[in-house]
Amino acid sequence: MLGLPLVTLIIFLPLLGALAIACMRGEGALIDRNAKSVALLTSLTVLLLVIMIIKYFDTFSGGYQFVEKYAWITFLEH
Questions:
Q1: pTM value?
Q2: Which residue in 14, 16, 2, 13 sits closest to 52, CA to CA?
């Protein structure tokens, strides 16, 4: 695979786009135009990531694919 955390990016990129839109300041018309641009850019980026997942999905492989493992609570691990 690519080594990118695709699933994490697909989940959290729209949240970052929404946060960017929520933090915009300025005149109403300018905010509207910039918000639409950020929303479009975010949506197209997520679409590209989904296309990458579809491209690299192996239909003949058994088991989970695109698994991301992170240590969340390290002091509980033995």
A1: 0.83
A2: 2
